[in-house]
Design goal:
Elements: E1 11-14, H1 21-35, E2 39-44, H2 50-63, E3 67-73, H3 76-85, E4 90-93, E5 102-109, E6 113-114, H4 118-121, E7 138-140, H5 144-152, E8 164-168, H6 178-183, E9 188-192, H7 214-223, E10 227-231, E11 238-241, E12 247-248, H8 250-264, E13 268-272, H9 277-285, E14 289-293, H10 297-307, E15 311-313, E16 319-321, E17 327-328, H11 330-344, H12 348-353, E18 364-367, H13 371-384, E19 389-392, E20 396-400, E21 403-409, E22 415-422, H14 425-440
Parallel strand pairs: 2-3, 2-4, 3-7, 8-9, 8-10, 13-14, 13-15
Antiparallel strand pairs: 1-5, 4-5, 5-6, 10-11, 11-12, 15-16, 16-17, 18-22, 19-20, 20-21, 21-22
Helix pairs in contact: 1-2, 8-9
């Protein structure tokens, strides 16, 4: 079993160089033995390689003697729902927000409990388990209706107003459900790219990158919509655009959601080290307890369960809900935004404005094959910038009197990600400019 595709939160890599049908079969076989399961849910996204990987994964599962409940094409939150409602493990074939040449697998315990890190790598210890003399069986199951009912149940529909909403499914899995869900609500929705296409021809599936929201922004302005939402490839993320066609930063969304949820129920809220300071301030102001955690669904969900957190948020647009088996969901996030705008009776830009207290630009992403070396050079620059304290938590964060800079090499891609925040707008612009100037001076390997 190749370990190059095994990461902290899932199994993911370039297809077929780093992940292929043989790995999928081995994972299916090993995971079944590891879980000592009688049945396992399997679902897949619409990537071009997903069907073939799913078929091989299923072969591995039934070779162990375990039955398969094949859910077919589904978004990742739908697989979480199945494992939560029916208390059985599951595997999702997806590379989430990554470009179309990637694919992967997310392994989930009963109750939507994540598996990651060393636990994933330990699956190889089960490859030599005996094959069953009685292979498992494959059953096809369509849970679309009950899943959509669950999604809608997460909000109070009686107070919804007839808002205009632009929905960008990005040719990903959200398009399978969004029409059914939103057509049963008192809104006018304008669909963008609802047809599933694993090539993602209209824009790449990473909605945390602003350029992938350009068509949504244009459509919101053209239609005079109340807001717009975009989902990534497997619909576990959501990114928002206000009525002016401007992106609402994820920390603002996290603050809006935190304020709303804490009005209903008090408790801890988990966020990442990359969140704006406004997130923890909003949580505290509204009677909650802010808790910082590492990036990634494995870390977030585990911490939320441990602390019995009522909500969780990442800067990438993952929003986690206690009532959703502590799992993330792009669809539920968009419905919550719809509910909040209906109740507040104010434009999204106005609601978001009170959370734009600090200067926090979009993160900088550097694609390079020598990401560790480049990350070290950037860290040295951060050290030399001025007096600071270092916090080694999810990369390294350098804290200065006027703000902070976080440097982190990606676990799944040849990428270095840099995020910063300043407590003063002009100082923040200067900090960002200095950093970009230094990055441009580096020699990057393709």
């Amino acid at each position: 079993m190749k370990e190059v595709a095994f990461h902290a939160n899932d199994i993911r890599g370039l297809y077929p160089k780093e992940i292929d049908e043989n790995i999928a079969r081995e994972v299916g076989f090993a995971f079944s033995h590891y879980m000592e399961a009688k049945k396992i849910f399997v679902a897949r996204d619409c990537r071009l390689s997903s069907k073939s990987l799913s078929d091989s994964l299923i072969k591995g599962v039934i070779e162990s003697g375990c039955d398969v409940i094949d859910l077919g094409l589904m978004d990742t939150p739908g697989l979480y729902f199945a494992t939560g409602k029916y208390s059985s493990p599951g595997i999702m074939i997806t590379a989430s927000h990554n470009p179309p040449e990637y694919n992967g697998m997310i392994c989930v315990k009963p109750g939507a409990l994540p598996i990651g890190g060393q636990e994933l790598k330990d699956l190889k210890d089960y490859l030599h388990a005996p094959k069953s003399n009685k292979p498992g069986k494959v059953y096809n199951k369509d849970i679309t209706k009950e899943y959509e009912k669950h999604v809608i149940s997460q909000i109070k529909t009686k107070n919804l107003r007839p808002l205009h909403i632009v929905i960008d499914a990005g040719n990903g899995m959200a398009g399978k459900y969004a029409e059914d869900i939103f057509s049963n609500l008192p809104c006018k929705f304008i669909p963008l790219f609802f047809k599933q296409d694993g090539r993602f021809p209209n824009h790449l599936p990473d909605t945390a990158i602003s350029s992938n929201l350009n068509k949504l922004m244009e459509k919101v302005k053209k239609e005079n919509a109340s807001f717009g939402v975009a989902y990534d490839g497997d619909a576990d993320r959501a990114s928002f655009v206000d009525e002016r066609g401007e992106i609402v930063p994820a920390s603002c969304v996290a603050s809006i959601f935190s304020e709303n949820i804490l009005k209903k129920i008090k408790g801890p809220i988990v966020h990442t080290a990359l969140s704006s300071q406004i997130v923890s301030e909003t949580i505290t102001k509204n009677g909650g307890t802010p808790l910082a955690e590492k990036i990634g669904h494995t870390f977030m969900k585990s911490r939320m369960r441990k602390e019995e957190a009522v909500f969780g948020a990442e800067e990438s647009g993952h929003y986690y809900f206690k009532s959703n088996y502590y799992a993330d969901s792009g669809l539920i996030s968009s419905l919550l935004m719809y509910e909040i705008l209906s109740e507040e009776k104010q434009p999204l830009s106005v609601i978001a404005s009170k959370f734009k207290k600090y200067y926090k630009p979009e993160g900088i992403e550097i694609r390079t094959s020598d990401r560790k070396e480049i990350a070290e050079k950037i860290k040295k620059w951060c050290e030399s910038r001025g007096e600071n304290t270092k916090e080694e938590f999810d990369g390294i964060t350098y804290k200065y009197k006027d703000g902070w800079i976080n440097v982190r090499a990606s676990n799944t891609e040849p990428v270095v990600r840099i995020n910063l925040e300043a407590y003063d707008y002009s100082k923040g612009k200067n900090m960002e400019l200095q950093l970009i100037t230094f990055i441009k001076s580096l020699r990057l390997k393709p």
